[in-house]
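Model it.
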Amino acid sequence: MKQVKRWPGWVLLVMVVAGLLAFGTTRDAGARTPEERVEEISKQLACPVCNGETVYESRNTQSASIRTEIKAQVTTTDATDDEIIAYIVQNFDAKTLLVPRATGFESLVWVLPSVAIVCAAVGLFFVFRRWRLAADLVPSDDDRALVDAELRADS
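Modeled.
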């Protein structure tokens, strides 16, 4: 009877978490201004000259020219952010991409942590289940009689 009461809570928890993850990954921030797009795109690109800075943070002349090009692309074309990033990576420096793409081999950066978390959760579920089942074992009358007989034999 205990187990019947427990599983609906777990099912509800899994459904809520899945719903929140689905909502979080598909949520659209709505319309953005050109300045917001330029800022977001420049935060995803590494400065080709500076070490460890984004194009947005860097005050290097090359970063300034990349920001100018991003602004021109945003205002004069209908290109998406990904298309503008691809254009900048191709025309300025192949190492400017700061955030890994979500396609191909680079998608492992996004997938592997999720897979590890799921595997860990499943492993913990089975370990806790085994511990609970081991704790729920109650000795039978025959087991008690056997232990009592052995204790009497030893004394």
